Protein 1
Amino acid sequence: MSDPVAFDFAVDKAARTVTITREFDADLSLVWDAFTKAELLDQWLPPHPMTAKTKYQDFQVGGKRFYAMVSPAGEERWALQEYTAITPKTNFVLYNAFADKDENAELPGSEWNYTFSEQNGTTTVRISVYNESFERMERILEGFTTGMKMSLGNLDNLLTTLSGR
């Protein structure tokens, strides 16, 4: 891996939005796969010491991913995501909500908009997370911030392994 890559994490409480911009020292196809294939998401998304397990994923508009973050004690925290827009290799949007093990969503949720671009072998991912509820955003913000930073670090390591850089 080369020098550290750009990373920006901004919270706009008035707009109930968190924006994350992160560069990865990997080509666009590999980074796109890491964000859109369950077998790869399960490897980097859970912050240590959590693990992740995807029950199912159907990556198409109207399709869903149902997965859990699992604590070392075996406690599961489920989330249900529905893909609302996909432009291959450049953008996808999903609606995310916590859920119970039977896929009953806990509303309100959040809308995640992912944008991908590549220049000279470096891929930039911009993630905008709009929260339907300010109270929900306030409740999860600290853990979300710490968890996302850990997850994106995990992704760096996975991309290094997969790309052989």
Protein 2
Amino acid sequence: MESNKYLEDIIEIKNIMNRSSRFISLSGLSGVLAGIYALIGAFFAHVRLEQSNISRVEGYSERDVFLSNNELVRDLLLIAIAVIVLASFTGFLLTLKKSKKRGEKIWDATSKRLVINFLIPLLVGGFFCLVLIQQNSAFLVAPATLIFYGLACVNAGKYTMGDVGYMGMAFIILGLISTQFIGYGLYFWALGFGVCHIIYGSLMYFKYDQK
């Protein structure tokens, strides 16, 4: 009996230390919804690309011409922004709900470190993608968004569940592979931001949210 009490105390101390150094109220369901939003966004982007006949064009240089179309780039950016806004808003609401349920603060020193470490690579990647568009290299935007989002997840993974870091590594690998299949970026984008998010969110939901 005495040894069981010591074991329970050690587990409790470990949980307290974990809560003080890592933000563990991220919602798995928000990851699933983010993936669904991304797949819907990829569908609309595919329709828009079909309207421009870009999917029938062979060769990088010819595709550059199409991706220099300001209206096409603007529409793709609007779709991407809509997906990001929806995913961020849903993620905030569900994480807030989970934090309240667990009796934890959503905004404290730990969550600040998490957000800062996530945003730094993400914002750098966002500016880099704008430069790619400016330099008529928009065909590299899909691989770049996957790689920089992956770096943001790996960097933020130190301050939340380790699963986030593993998902980040998957994004980085997927982004690097997609650099070798230029012209199929939208499919890799859907696989990463859509399918990977749904798988990750489902695992997180059953692993943590059901407790």
Protein 3
Amino acid sequence: MTSKPLDAALADAEDAFQRTPENPESGLEHITDPAVLQLRKACRLLDAARFLLDRNGHFTVVIETSFVAIERSIQFYVEEKGHDVAGQRHTEVYELGVRTGLFSEEIADRLETLWTENRSESYYRTGIAGEYRATTMYDVAEAVHDEVVALTRTRDCLCEGTL
């Protein structure tokens, strides 16, 4: 891969990440609290997943986005409780959820099994993502997020109807 268009596009992207964003994403700008940033990333991921579900497609992206929204929501809860979550593997966040009392070991095991057995399959296309799978994963992500928001009583959630 040595084409001039690739070289130019890569240089532009490298430059873009060296600059201060000219049009930052609303709701994520000026956030200095790392826990709130994770919560709001989860809000945006859920919004994007809902947008794609409403258009009847992109089920692989909805499933992937839902798993990441779950992780970001749990990460917010754990960080709000004063624990560090930096550098963890994807599935370690579920154990952190147990340690902080967010959910039981059984729920953590079920979430981890869901991730281990299905996330990679959908993402890498060894399995076929479908509407029902995408919808149910979105529902799990939304339920985890809503419960985290309710338990923490945060006012930092960007999801529709919470501001």
